[in-house]
Amino acid sequence: MLLGVLVLISIISVGCLDDADPASARPAPPPAERRAGVAVLEFENSSQIRGVGRGMAERLDSELLACGWFDVITRRNLDDILGEHFEQQQAFVDDSTAVEMGKVAGVDYMIMGNVINVSAEPYALSVGGVGVGATRVEVDVSIQMISVQTGRLTASPYVSASNVSPQIAVGRAGLPRFAYGDGSDYSAAVEKAIEEAAVDAVNQLIAAIE
């Protein structure tokens, strides 16, 4: 039993350790007049977790704004610019439609993608009526950055990121009460993994145009 506790604690501890900030290794951004204009479309969602396609797109928007390498038309402004003509196509956009959208928006690149998978692996152990557990979440995302000028694919990062969300709960008869099935227990880990995936993706997008 003690060995099991130690193993679970080690899983939680390793998953919660902060790695070096990958954004800190980015090269210095160019002058404002040389920044590439980009817009991000809502990502498709092939996972079983609702809302992660939109969440990934919004997080990527934020990271692109923060890095200083791009002039970003935020998703809200993009919707206003594109108007009703493209409204029904936002969720299912092919390359040629993305290029047309980019021309209307006046950007250099259009970014779209797909959250391919969100997996959650729970660990739980009950000791003396106290449940100690963790959920390891992994997110896999494919991204495409298309040149509006040429219509060609400029970069296609495939990023994977993971995070561990620890839980402690008091249960009956020594059994922990975790609700892994409905996603409520690991939503924070999903958000953190999406954030890490977005940072990784932006680093690769910068490298593609640097």
According to CATH, what is the topology? Rossmann fold
Query: Strand tally, please?
Result: 7
> What order do the helices and strands follow?
HEEHEHHEEEEH
CATH homologous superfamily placement: ABC-type transport auxiliary lipoprotein component
Roughly how many Å is the radius of gyration? 20 Å
CATH class, anyone?
Alpha Beta
Q: What is the number of independent domains?
A: 1
Task: Please tell me about this protein's structure.
The chain is α/β, with parallel strands linked by helices. It has a single domain, classed as ABC-type transport auxiliary lipoprotein component (Rossmann fold), CATH 3.40.50. 35% of the residues lie in helices and 30% in strands. It is built from 5 helices and 7 strands. Strands 1, 2, 3, 4, 5, 6 and 7 form a 7-stranded mixed sheet that branches. Strand 5 and strand 6 form a beta hairpin. Helix 2 crosses helix 5.
